[in-house]
Amino acid sequence: MYELFGWALLAGVLNALAGGGLFLTLPALLAAGVPSTGAVATASVASWPGYLSAFWGMRRQLGSGPWLALTLIGLGGGGLGALTLVQFNADSFNYLVPWLLLGVSLLYARQLLSRSGFEGPLRMKRRAWPLLLAGSFYGGFFGGGLGVLLMALTGQLRLGSNLQQHAIKLYLSMLASGATILVYSLSGLVHWRACLLLALGYLIGGKLGARLLVCLRPRLLAWAIVGFGIGLSGYYFVRFYG
Question: What is the Cα–Cα distance from 227 to 2, expressed in whole angstroms?
């Protein structure tokens, strides 16, 4: 069981840098005998301290940005996503995971190749609301590859600089994960012993990842995110369809 701490430590670093930490902790929980729906709920609740520590290291990037809009989007979308998962069997969602990962990774790659770039002023646009709300909903419902998805969305929207987009990614992830805590706790899906071990690993890993984030070259990191997402999609195509 204590091996979960090591996986969560790596997942916390990964979430701060790119996203996708759940794809380390979810298989570890499944291997420990936690049912799939409970594993998704436990990993989602446990990831909150990691997102909190990672965002705390990046919070100054948002300055006087659209805090209220992002807060409403993150909490609303994450809460709705968690309520949806409680109603459905998470096993059936597994078959969508590789397609979603591949889609958002290719979307991110497309914007990196665009001559117009993927940065802009930090202000909320009307079309940003439904897109970011959908991303937060995904974070509450499943969350695997959430960081890749949010980076793709904020890049397409040209919502701030690269570091500001990372800060938005972490803030929305923190809120969506936080919104799941109440829903999943009341549903009885959370395995608390495993959750506490994961949370400690996520907390330490998130802080380490945030420190690394400001030292890395933004475009190099962006391509690393694309490669990571495509690699994960290939792995889960083989796992779920093989």
Answer: 30
